[in-house]
Amino acid sequence: MKKISTGLYSLFWTQFFGALNDNLFKSALVLLITYKNISLFGLSPASMVAFCGGIFILPFFLISATSGQLADKLDKIWLSIKIKEAEVLISLLGALGLFLQNYYLMIFVLFLLGLQSTFFGPIKYALIPRYTKTEHLVFGNALISSGTFLAILLGTIIGGIAAGIDDNYWPLVVLLLSIAFLGLYYARKLQSQKNKELPMSSESIHVNWNFFTSTRDILKLIFIDSERAHLIIGLSWFWFMGAGLLSLLPLIAKNIFHGSEAVATIMLFTFTLGMGIGPFILEKICKGRIFTSIIPLSLILMTLVIFDLAYVIKAASTFSSELGNHLSIAEFFKLNLSFRTSVDLLLLSLFGGMFTVTQFAQLQSKTFETELSRIVAGNNIVNAAAMVLVSILLMIFHGSSFSLSFILGILGFFNVLMSMLLLNFYKNEFNNFLRF
Length: 436
What we know:
Blueprint: H1 6-35, H2 45-62, H3 64-73, H4 76-100, H5 103-131, H6 137-163, H7 170-190, H8 211-223, H9 226-256, H10 261-286, H11 294-316, H12 329-332, H13 338-365, H14 372-399, H15 404-425, H16 427-435
Helix pairs in contact: 1-2, 1-5, 1-6, 1-7, 2-5, 2-14, 3-5, 3-14, 4-5, 4-7, 5-6, 5-14, 6-10, 6-13, 8-14, 9-10, 9-13, 9-14, 9-15, 10-13, 11-13, 11-15
């Protein structure tokens, strides 16, 4: 096991607690809206859940370009501290909304949490190379990536549990504030761990506050280089597939296997587990080196698993549960094909983790220090667009009454097309890998 630098250790916990708080509040709010039948803006509770997802991701469209410019212009650690101080204030505002049961205020808090995440995203990936040697970039990205996915999982589960306590919001409020203060604590520890040989800011960068022109300029910056463009397309494809598959998991658990919420949670856990351990397996195999041939190879393996999962879902849908509805986890694993489904989910996310970490490490190694935050911010814009696109496509597919196995098949076909594109771009590296 590699020795983790104190700077990378503090960065891990800073981003971990930030992601944990975001998902804790979002999960709690969605559950409260669902079970209290909250309707706002003329929207039904079901539509409100989708609206909350859109509100959280909206800042990534509107502010990412500006956040990237600020992260490159200003001292990144100073900016991290200010963002975490803002998170404490946002958490206090969220506590007020909970006690007042003011859902308009809570939705505004959700927007603010998305906003502070938008500002911090470019910073965390720009700081990884500062605290990690070049030959350990894969490990650094694996660590931060696994922490993010673990935080998402824990936040979703803990937020749901805390919101389920009948009209007692104190546990949720204590968690929100405690996590926010922990994030601030570790952000301040970054201050004493600066690499004095590297510049922390570039004051010559002009910050464009116009949403349209700043977004246009940052997209030009990321697509002007073909290798960078392919990396960002690949990273956005990861979020396209990930968001699509995550949205299908509850439906697979409920409609195919007749499972309870606990079954849906175990599927989510399995999917997240693979995303966390995949990058570390990759780092062990590659011994810290970046092999771009892994990018198309891991996507091909993902495609094979998606097709197998589609087959399994189709086969499982032909029989009815012998144990009734709302099966427990133990009852779920007594069903035919349940274990195979779990293995598919684990492998799918494991290869997905390899796919995304390789690209982030390559992006960091090929990007100048002074523009890395802007590149990451531009990547966030494209990622957000990809997640919105897959949501729209799935709404169309569900509206057309496509079966879940057929939808998975379509996603697998999309993956084949993307695999062909990436194979063409990385054909030399892939051929060398096969000869090796």
